[in-house]
Recover the amino acids of this structure.
């Protein structure tokens, strides 16, 4: 256990390895906007995590600006939250090495995401991909973050962060030093599925261009993707239980509910008994209303990379002030000459 008594602080990050989509918005970025009014928040573009698999250098830089633009366009305010890129704060890597000496191989061997990403040819995967969760722990704890908005696929990594905290605090007789970070998972729209397969998560790597609504999509593109979304021939049920064996219908209802800040029950109360011929146009109008302005603002921001760079650099300076103190204290605790 930890007796940490420091301030509540939120940390989260997104990899710059593809276009931001509706799932990213509902599952993460919209929550970032809400949290910045309630907590001290740090929102990172985790470019060091991105290179655990090959990235084209120019594309990596462009994608870093793309993520920053998505944060700002969706409503993250750099005056309220610290927005920065991971590689600009060397303390992440310094703490990750120390944590690598605290974590145990058995802990990492249990991480299912490495097995999923490495596939059958894990011997050819990078060491960085294997130790990714240790760097994630450093990302969080270099700021002594107490809360982390994560998806279900990252929950196991957060549990590893908690294991590292427990071992560090015990081994170095520093029970009050690091907090045990808590996940912030619950909330509407936490898991948005593919428009072509309701059993698969919406992803930037989907083979079908029609499966994913990108934040950068214009109104016409959004409407066409909703129109072509896979459904079934049955009308919508009157209550959520009727969606249990209908993944595509459940996904579309869930998107509508999340964007309208309603429950699934509310949506089905309005559209139950109706066919998708009526529901899809209503959903398209709603997605266009909520997402198209974000896309327009992203395009404006991305046209001015100098401004985005200024935001990231200023954020990195603020983040470094916190991170460098943590690493300096950690060095003292482990016995380094400081």
């Amino acid at each position: 256990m930890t007796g940490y008594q420091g301030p509540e602080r939120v940390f989260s990050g997104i990899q710059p390895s593809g276009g931001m989509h509706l799932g990213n918005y509902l599952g993460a970025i919209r929550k970032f906007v809400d949290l910045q009014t309630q907590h001290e928040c740090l929102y990172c573009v985790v470019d060091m995590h991105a290179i655990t698999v090959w990235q084209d250098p120019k594309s990596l830089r462009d994608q870093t600006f793309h993520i920053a633009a998505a944060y700002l366009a969706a409503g993250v305010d750099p005056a309220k939250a610290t927005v920065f890129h991971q590689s600009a704060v060397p303390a992440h890597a310094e703490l990750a090495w120390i944590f690598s000496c605290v974590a145990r191989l058995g802990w990492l061997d249990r991480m299912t995401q490495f097995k999923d990403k490495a596939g059958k040819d894990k011997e050819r995967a990078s060491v960085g991909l294997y130790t990714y969760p240790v760097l994630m722990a450093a990302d969080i704890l270099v700021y002594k973050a107490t809360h982390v908005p994560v998806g279900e696929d990252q929950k196991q990594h957060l549990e590893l962060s908690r294991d590292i905290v427990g071992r560090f605090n015990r081994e170095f007789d520093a029970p009050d030093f690091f907090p045990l970070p808590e996940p912030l998972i619950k909330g509407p729209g936490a898991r948005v599925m593919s428009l072509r397969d309701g059993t698969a998560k919406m992803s930037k790597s989907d083979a079908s261009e029609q499966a994913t609504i990108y934040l950068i999509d214009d109104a016409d593109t959004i409407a066409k993707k909703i129109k072509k979304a896979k459904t079934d021939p049955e009308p919508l049920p009157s209550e959520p239980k009727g969606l249990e064996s209908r993944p595509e219908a459940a996904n579309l209802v869930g998107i509508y509910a999340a964007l309208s800040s309603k429950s699934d029950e509310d949506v089905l109360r309005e559209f139950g008994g109706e066919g998708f011929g009526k529901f899809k146009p209503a959903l398209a109008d709603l997605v266009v209303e909520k997402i198209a302005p974000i896309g327009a603002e992203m395009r404006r921001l991305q046209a001015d990379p100098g401004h985005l760079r200024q935001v990231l650099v200023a954020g990195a300076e603020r983040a470094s002030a916190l991170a460098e103190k943590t690493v300096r204290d950690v060095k003292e605790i482990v016995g380094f000459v400081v």
The two ends are 28 Å apart (CA to CA). Residues 305-334 form the longest helix (30 residues). The first strand starts at residue 9 and ends at 14.
